[in-house]
Every structure is written in C-alpha cells, then in structure tokens.
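Continuing from the previous page...

OK, I double-checked the sequence for Guanine deaminase against my notes and this is the correct one:
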Amino acid sequence: MAGNIISNDNGDAMVFCGTLIHATKASPMVILQDQVIGVRKGKILFVQPKEDLDKLLDQHNLSKGCVKYLTKYQFVMPGLIDTHIHAPQSVYAGTALDLTLLDWLSRYTYPTEAKFSDLDFATHAYKKVVRRTLTCGTTTATYFATIHKESSLKLAEIAADLGQRAFVGKVNADKNSPSNYIETLGQSLADTEWFIEKMKDLDNPLIAPVITPRFAITCSWELMTGLGELAKKHNIRVQSHISENRDEIKSVLEAYPDCKNYTDVYDKCGLMTDKTLMAHCVYLDDDEIQTFKDRGSAMSHCPCSNFSLRSGVMDCRKMKDSGVKLGLGTDVSGGYNPSMFGAIRDAVTATNVQSIQHLPEHPYRHLDFKEIFQLATLGGSEVLGIEDTVGNFEVGKEFDALLVTMDTEDSPFEIFENAAYEDSLEVSLKSVVNFQDDVVQKFFFRGDDRNIEEVYVCGRKVKPFKDEETKQQQQQ
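Thanks. Re-ran it with the corrected sequence; updated structure tokens here:
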C-alpha cells in the first residue's frame, strides 16, 4: 500500500520523508529513520533529519508539494547494481541447468546467442530483458550481448530508452566456437571499434561500451591483445570470465602453456587494468589475487550460476578481506534468477557453505546479509568505477533508488503487529531478542519485485513503466 503521496509541483525536484537504508564504506548497512532526502535534477541535495524538513524546503526553494511521506513499512534504498548478466541468455533462463559449464555453452548458449543476428528477434528479447531487470530493482546492469554489432547496439538503445544505467559489451570470439557463431580476428576488432563509436554517438551519460572477450578459450592471443589496445585507446572498461570451472582452467592453461596461471593470460594481453571486471573467480590462487590487487582489477561474485552449473563456491570472505574490489552478479542464465535480491540470498548461502567446510580449529567468518547488501550496492559501484556517482545516498551523487513497500497487498511475506512478536524497524527490547531490522531482514530474504513500488535512475522514475501508469490511470 502506498504512503501519503503529495503531488510534485516542482517538476525536477522531490523529497522523500521516512526511512532510508544504504551502505557506506564504514558500515555495510545503515538504517536512517525519520530522515528526509532531497533530489533535484537527478542529484541528491540533502540528507537530514525529518525535523529539519521545513527549513530545508525554504533553503532550497522547494514547496511541500514535492514531498513524499513514507509509511512505517516503506523505505528508500539505493538501486541494485548487477555486475554480470548475459542479456541474450534471458531467453532460456530457468532451463538448461543439467550440464556443467563447457557442455552447457556448446549445447544451449551458442545456439541461442546465434539467433541474435536477427535484429527483430533481438529487439523483442532485449526489451523484455531490460524491463525485467528494472522491475526487479536493477538500476545499473553490466551486460554481455552477443558477437553481433547491430543487435548489441540495440540493447544499449533499449536500455537508454527505458532509463537504465548500463554497460554494454559486444562479445568477441574468434576460435573454439560454432561455425555460425564465430568471428575472424579482423572482423571482431573492426566490429568492436564500430560498436564503441556508435555507443559514443548515443551521447547518453547512463550508457557506456565495455570491451568483452567472452573468455580465453574462445579468443586468440592476437584478439585479446587487440582488445586490450582498444580498451586503452578509448579509455573504456573490460569484462570477461575467469576461473569459473576446473575444466575451463585446464583448457586455458593447455592453450597458453607459457602463462603461469589463468590471470596471467589476460594480464600479458593487456586486459588486467584498473578498469577490468572479471566474473566468477572461484579458483584463483593467492598469486592471482595479488595480480588483481596490483592491477586494480575487480571481481563479480555470481553464486546462483556457480551453484546451478556446479562450478564451485567462491570464497567471498577471502576476496573481500583481500581488498580486491568485489560486486555481485546474477549471471543470467547460468544464474536462473534475474533479481539481485536472489543474488544476495545465494551469496549468503555461498558464504555459509564456505563456513561449513572449514574445520572447527580454523573458524571461518561468514558474511551476513548486510555485508552482501553492501556488495550489491556500493560495492558494485566501486567495481564499475562509478562510486562517485551512485551506490549510496551521499549528497552530490545521482539518485538511483528503490521505493520499497513491505506490506503491499500481494507481498510474498507477512508483517505482524500487535502480537507477542512484532515486526519493527525500531530498536526494541521486548524480550531477550533485539528486534532491530527484523522487517528489513525479512524483505531481503523473502521480498521480491512486488515490494518494489518505484524505481529511479538519475532521479527519473523508470518503474512503473509509462504504459503501466497509463493502464493504472485508466482503471482508476
């Protein structure tokens, strides 16, 4: 159920009054009650106690008409950042999880991605992908597209049109791929540069190209080196996969015997930089982790995919404590769930599994849901180099946010009041149990898109979608 919403007569300005939840570098989850957050032209103007509301409205020349008052079971949180998702694989997400990685790629992934040479098919699919991820609260997505330059550009155009912040990569592959889904070296590099230039022509600050070699098995040394040079020339980011599966690692080392480990392959090709993001990182050794640190490269933890394809369990605690930049990814469709809330829950399970595997004499400090929340928001922004722009509610940052309502009529979980046990956002000592954060924790473990009433990117409301709002107005 919605809060008491007063219409906005200031156009580009809005103020939320109620509970805010975000992460900082010092604290993985901060719950700020009775606060006001002001936004103008997409940027955060102020975050102050509710008692200062009238003074803040006068100070910033805002009327009371731009204030949205939240109920006690609503809060505003930063938008979620998916640091690794394959947009074309959404077509078969939730199926084809009966194989391990390399067989799964050959039998399901490559045949599906080959279909994206058809621009009409790609347009239809990508509209569904972007709408779905926005519905689930993903305000920033780092997409793998396919080897097809036109349909990859179409994905970027759709994200721009629907208002999502997106990094989009045209995939590169010039070996060990099917005959109908492979490039030549020259074609791959030329198409990638074409794609980069066309992305620049969009002139949209929310959309950026990212160099995307699929992984070392499907890319020749010459291609990877050429892509490293393109990334440097255009000063753009790099994304790929690393150390996901033991058979994959074995194949890479057999293909590149002069390299000491998987990370060394990318490093020698100029692909390990402070703008690099590698997905999975399940089996990296200490030397490889050190290379990530030395180069300033980042990791995307994709637990649902790692479980589903039986690849392994990343030691998230070890990576986080090493100081490497770390974010979360859904990895659709190795991961079957497009929601980052699913990624948060699976990451909690993954760290619990690591804890179980450690012997009592070697205790393991698992990550709790608050630390994982930090990875899904502020951590993701650091991984993508946009921590000065988004990730939490610091004044001056752009307002990428979700309005969460925990007691919607179709909520997947229940709120209990006036009982021996009462859900509350407040500190309570009704018993020996501290009930602080209980209802918030319920949402993170049981909530879904039905609880996400509104989604904002750079201050623009992108959920509900325009067609949905029109339908709602007609019904009213």
